[in-house]
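An instance follows:
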Amino acid sequence: MTYILIAVSIVGFVLEVVTGLNPVTGGGNSVVENALLYIPGDVVNAPWTLITVNFDHANFVHILFNMYSLFVVGPPLERFLGRARFIALYFITGIGAVVAVDFFAPEPVLGASGAIFGLLGVLLILARRMGIRSGQLVLVIILNLAIGYFVPSIAWQAHVGGLIVGLALGFVLLRTTRRGRLPLQIAAFIVVALGLVVSLLVHVFG
């Protein structure tokens, strides 16, 4: 699934370029880019953007950095969790990133970084079971959060939102790994996803 996500993102970027995006500067008025990005408060008019935002990127450097990060983080986590849980985590944490943007950022957002931070959060919780040194992982997360905060064009809110939901879902995984607890795990994933969507709707109509 990691490689499918990367492939779809690349196809999406090519379509952005074909429809008007400048791949170097990110300028232009791309029809595909505008259709896929998430606009705060617009979830009712464009609900698909909760998912498509993950396949929309501003320029070549943006997609290169995100896809490299996904290439590094995705495969070991996918092998450990399985395809179904991995893809569920990716999209649910991506929605978590969108929720944070909707509440705390006025500007449209695009890119897979929120979902990738979500995977990092899951990885941090499961690090010991996977044989990964959590100290190095914490340092990577902190450095990337800092970069997002100090660079104006990066939506740090999406990073924080994705990370928080990833940590929460990682905790759920940790507590539901025993045999017979799969239904509880699935139910928890559904509750988190629905809770995020409901919070968006409440924010829009509240």
Observations:
- The chain has nine helices and no strands.
- The chain has a mean pLDDT of 90.
- Residues 182-205 form the longest helix (24 residues).
- The CA atoms of residues 22 and 28 lie 6 Å apart.
